[in-house]
Write a structure and sequence with these properties.
single chain; about 150 residues; alpha+beta; Alpha-D-Glucose-1,6-Bisphosphate, Chain A, domain 4; 7-stranded antiparallel sheet; 7 strands; about 30% helix; globular
Length: about 150
Amino acid sequence: MARIEVSHASVLDAPASAVYAVIADYVDGHPRILPPRVFHDLTVEEGGVGAGTVIRFGMRVMGVDRRLRARITEPEPGRVLVESGLDGNDVVTTFTVESLDDGRRAAVRFDTVWTEGGIAGWIQRILAPPFLRRLYAEEMASLERVARERA
């Protein structure tokens, strides 16, 4: 089994509280930061904001479309939010938001970890990190824009 870990961090020129609120809002905020060429059909099954939310969505990568589900937890409300895969999907993405400049800006980090066996694991270990880092950079830019609109 290959363990794949991908991280991306940025400093956003948007209030930390607004940044976290966008990430935690799976009804209106989070869907607005996801690149539509990759993510589609995000549906809230339970909750909608923060801990207790359950989502399902499609993800299209290299011509392959996958349907995924995840449960949202908030180990540190207002600072750390975690999406944990359901239904045999072991992908875990942690979103961490640190306040900078008395809350006027935010240091944001996305960390994703999963395991994959066999040849697929070997291929993903090579191809997934650069792909996800580019994708996360796009999401960060959208996150900054949406958070500034909301602030």
